[in-house]
Write a structure and sequence with these properties.
- The chain has 387 residues and is an alpha+beta fold.
- It has eleven helices and 17 strands.
- Helix 1 crosses helix 2.
- The longest helix is centred in the N-terminal third of the chain and has 15 residues.
Length: 387
């Protein structure tokens, strides 16, 4: 009998093998990755003792409109090559989504290699992840602009607190990171020596940090920048200055970045080379909980629609979305309105498209009212974390 559940030790090992077979990753890396998630953040599809597929499911939170919405981040979806196109991935993902929806999680988030599969399951584009590469000499800064010190494990809590106060509320798409995501952000999940530097002002207050590790060998050494946060001009200048000094040994710096990042702002453009740009996808699991936790514009407006979710029809029906003072509520209504599903609601809530575009994209079967534009403003979200 087929089961979808947390794995036993042998099943976790079988899933690790599927990971490196599916994605061409290093076998030891896949085994370590599964070990870090084992057992409660791994789900496997087991049939008659054979592991046919698996994935990671890591509960976190995601910032939208200055508020954090609980979310499950899904990654590492790997299916036995002999069992593909037989519905294994659909059954696995549907079961995991239902598990977290039933537990009260409003959103699921993932990076997709097969957008068609995930769109069939109700996921839709919500924002971007952009990785660039540049030479250290293309940074300008002054390492003496403020105090810079190396940070050990006992200082990581302060860095996390700075990120949660200075970054999380102000960047749509940013994650309220789990411990596993922090391992990656602080460059602690890779082999080799990880560097983590913090900046302080004249009163000794923490003002920023950067974390990276290096890959390869001279003369082709690469610094992989896991995280960089700066809250003052002096902090940003000092961190850029330190990274620029890596020129003596490092030939390139790779990092996920967005246009408002302090590094991107001060790069000697057009020196940065795009490495990858891909969309991250979001699935609304529970529209009532998602709307209640979302950060809306500081306006008063309403939008009426009929909700329809073929996979999770528990909330299907007519609703009026009421927004006031940045908060939203979904209330059952007698009226109808155009039919909206999870893909369309994701596109609206994330600001990926304007409401007027939804009918063109076949995500709404009618014309929205003018009030929808006040409820759902356009915005661009960047998710720097990978999972």
């Amino acid at each position: 009998m087929a089961e979808i559940r947390e794995p036993g030790l042998g099943e976790a090992e079988a899933y690790a093998e599927l990971l490196w077979q599916s994605f061409g990753l290093d076998q030891a890396f896949c085994e370590a990755l599964v070990e870090r998630h084992f057992p409660d953040r791994v789900r496997v599809f087991v049939d008659e003792g054979r592991v046919l597929g698996g994935l990671f499911a890591d509960p976190q939170g995601q910032s939208w409109g200055g508020r954090v919405v609980p979310a499950v981040c899904i990654g590492g979806v790997a299916i036995d090559p002999t069992m593909r196109r037989r519905g294994v991935a659909t059954r696995l993902l549907t079961a995991v989504l239902d598990e977290f929806r039933s537990a009260g999680t409003p959103l699921a988030v993932l990076h997709a290699s097969n957008h068609a599969l995930y769109r069939k399951l109700g996921f839709e584009h919500a924002g971007l992840r952009q990785v660039v590469s540049f030479h250290p000499r293309d940074l300008t800064g002054d390492p003496r602009a403020c105090t810079v010190e190396r940070v050990g494990p006992d200082g990581h809590a302060a860095l996390k607190a700075l990120y949660n106060s200075a970054v999380l509320p102000h960047r749509d798409g940013a994650l309220l990171r789990s411990d596993l995501r922090w391992q990656r952000a602080l460059a602690l999940d890779r082999g080799g020596s990880a560097w983590c530097l913090a900046t302080r002002d004249s009163r000794g207050h923490l003002t920023g940090y950067a974390a990276w590790t290096t890959d390869g060998r001279l003369p082709g050494l690469t610094a992989r920048l896991g995280d960089v946060v700066a809250t003052t001009a002096a902090s940003a200048a000092a961190l850029r200055g330190v990274l620029a000094q890596l020129e003596a040994t490092v030939s390139s710096i790779h990092t996920a970045i967005a246009p408002d990042d302090p590094l991107w702002w001060h790069l000697q453009h057009p020196r940065a080379t795009p490495v990858s740009t891909d969309a991250f996808l979001v699935r609304v699991l529970d529209p009532l909980r998602a709307v209640a936790r979302w950060g809306f514009p500081n306006t008063t407006a309403t939008a009426s629609f009929t909700w329809s979710d073929p996979r999770f029809p528990q909330h299907d029906g007519a609703y009026t979305l009421r927004v006031r003072d940045g908060r939203g509520t979904l209330e059952p209504s007698r009226g109808g309105g155009p039919t909206l599903g999870p893909r369309g609601l994701t596109a609206l809530l994330s600001g990926r498209v304007s409401p007027l575009q939804l009918p063109v994209l076949d995500l709404l079967d009618g014309a929205p009212s003018e009030a929808w534009a006040r409820v759902f403003p356009r915005r661009t979200a960047y998710l720097r974390d990978m999972f």
